[in-house]
Design a protein that fits this description.
- The chain is α/β, with parallel strands linked by helices.
- It folds into 2 domains: about 150 residues, Aspartate Aminotransferase, domain 1; about 220 residues, 3-Layer(aba) Sandwich (Rossmann fold), CATH 3.40.50.
- The chain has 12 helices and 12 strands.
- The strands form 3 sheets. Strands 3-4-2-1-5-6-9 form a 7-stranded mixed beta sheet, with helices on both faces.
- α4 links the parallel β5 and β6.
- α4 crosses α5.
- It is globular and about 65 Å long.
- It starts with 6 loop residues before the first helix and ends in a 6-residue tail after the last helix.
Length: about 400
């Protein structure tokens, strides 16, 4: 797989300039620091964060609040993948932060919602974690559960906002069906929601009718159509298998099928840029997908052997997914196109029904299993998007 490690850099060359607004974007934590932490003055603070909670200069939000003279940092909380963002396991225990000496309560262990005991001495819960822009990325769920806890126990909630790295304009379905809510589907959202974590917090509070004092400290200088590589901000892998912007752009479509029996590149150098399985014929699948002429993308036949996760240590036939035009590329169309080909060519091997966990929409799954064309599936998956776009209008913070 090493020969595919150059893909992230290659995509930048293929898709144009990358630092259109360098050194102009401040995240919520930078604005908080610029304002002398006045928004948290005199507060006992519980901070929900991980390794992505950093200032533009690379100082952790935990260190910053710990050293602020007018703030009392009393507790730390960590999401999936842990405080350092290195763990890819199903349950994480509490631990301690060596730099501050504070206990880190895991919100991906015995509980996923802060308890009254954990919130002892906390006046305000602060959330500072980088999201990726897809409904099933679990940091949204961690925030939502923490908001419930804050409302229940009378705590204020503050979100230090961060850009949506795959932009805040593009929205794509399907919507989550009622009754399909889970930790990978916290709220009634489309797969690609086009919102920041702060905007989502405002929506969740209103639509779930939470009695909660909520403040969002806005980003400064970010525009809705701006992708991460135009912010001047340093990329930090938000999770172990999200290693560059290219993978984030692919994730809403490719991540959609990772609950099936397909490797999506976990255990390789290029997760979400490749898919495969021992029973896939590489050239056959790549040829069929290229024949669809999906916009802004091409497919290269490959063989690879994951070192972990699905099909570990087994040689897989598959494809390398190469974005050729970011302006035309639509990740959900690509995910649907791949799903249709898997269903048509490998109906006895591919366990397509298992996609429901992340897809969260029965009509769309039925269309995939029926082998309908990707553009028709996209039409079915767009049901409810107009209403969602209206719903989200009142919560948008950026132009």
């Amino acid at each position: 797989m090493n020969r595919f490690a150059h893909v992230c850099a290659l995509i930048i060359v293929l898709t144009g300039p990358t630092c259109l607004a360098a050194d102009t974007v401040l995240c919520g934590v930078d604005v908080l620091q610029r304002d002398g932490f006045r928004q948290l003055t005199g507060q006992g603070v519980g901070l929900i964060t991980n390794h992505t909670g950093l200032t533009r200069d690379g100082v952790s939000t935990a260190t910053l609040l710990h050293e602020a003279s007018n703030v009392s940092l009393t507790a730390l909380f960590s999401p999936e993948h842990g405080f350092e963002g290195k763990l890819d396991i199903s349950k994480i225990d509490d631990t301690a932060d060596q730099s501050t000496g504070l206990k880190i309560f895991s919100l991906y262990g015995k509980t996923r919602r802060p308890t009254a005991e954990m919130l002892s001495g906390v006046d305000t819960l602060v959330f500072d974690i980088q999201d990726i822009g897809a409904r099933f990325y679990t940091y949204i769920s961690t925030m939502g559960e923490a908001m419930h806890a804050a409302a229940e126990h009378g705590k204020r909630f503050v979100v230090l906002d961060r850009p949506n790295p795959i932009n805040g304009v593009d929205v794509a379905g399907p919507m989550l069906d009622p009754g399909e809510e889970s930790f990978v589907g916290f709220h009634h959202l489309p797969v690609r929601h086009g919102m920041t974590i702060g905007e989502l917090a405002l929506m969740i509070r209103t639509e779930l009718k939470l009695d909660l004092k909520l403040d969002v400290i806005h980003c400064d200088g970010w525009k809705r159509d701006t992708l991460w590589d135009a912010t001047g901000l340093v990329w930090v892998n938000p999770s172990p298998n999200m290693r560059c912007l290219t993978q984030a752009l692919l994730y809403p479509g490719i991540g959609l099928i990772e609950t099936t029996n397909i490797s999506v590149g976990r255990g390789t150098n290029t997760p979400f840029e490749v898919i495969g399985a021992p029973w896939i014929q590489s050239r056959e699948l790549a040829g069929a997908l290229n024949a669809q002429a999906l916009p802004g993308v091409t497919f290269v036949p490959i063989r690879f052997t994951p070192t972990s996760s699905k099909h570990a240590k087994q040689q897989c036939g598959g494809i390398n997914i190469v974005i050729t035009d970011r302006a035309r590329f639509e990740p959900l169309i690509v995910g649907f196109g791949i799903s249709v080909q898997l269903q048509q060519r490998y109906p006895n091997d591919w366990k397509g029904r298992d996609a429901m966990r992340l897809l969260g929409n029965r009509r769309t799954l039925d269309a995939i299993l029926a082998g309908q064309p990707a553009d028709e599936i996209q039409q079915i998956a767009s049901a409810g998007l107009k209403q969602f776009l209206k719903r989200r209008l009142m919560f948008l913070l950026y132009d």
